[in-house]
Predict the structure.
Amino acid sequence: MSSREQILARIRTARTDVPDGPDDRPVPRDYCESHVGDAPAAEVLDLLVENLADYRAIVHRVTPEGLPALLARLLSERGARSVAVPEGLPRHWLAESAAERLPDDGTLSARQLDTVDSVVTGCALAVAETGTIVLDAGPAQGRRLLTLVPDHHVCVVRADQVVASLPQALPLLDPARPQTWISGPSATSDIELDRVEGVHGPRTLDVVIVA
């Protein structure tokens, strides 16, 4: 008997008590959904800020009224002369910025985006326990290409988009949408653990939490 036949035989043996056809038996989901339990929203936000900072993201907190001024300052300090934006980005977010806006209607190429100084987007949600931001190509987020090519990404997160844990996040996401999960600036390490940033996405990630 070949190795392949042995493996298949073991699988068949293991499935002898499984009925034919789809297995519709409910899966137990009585595990802990969050390590912070019913913590106040302010504590969940603080945890998100802490974990984002651990991943070397630059975190800012601002009120809705102060958002346009903060975005303008971040782009100015970066020296950004051009900024790519999704077509659905609220216009007032960049009302105070002098940078040239390049709305992405789906035609901006990777070569064009590589010449853009910054990109500003919203997000689908953020996960406090893992310091993760999720994009799903919504109107204020745009295509994956938009947030992976420019070297500087400013991502705006509303307080009501923050959940404590992954088990709380997954039911809120549409699995049919293209998702990008971000935990800090793009980085990788070689066999000697030398960290290199900006390999698979933006080298600099500014996260603006609006509350």
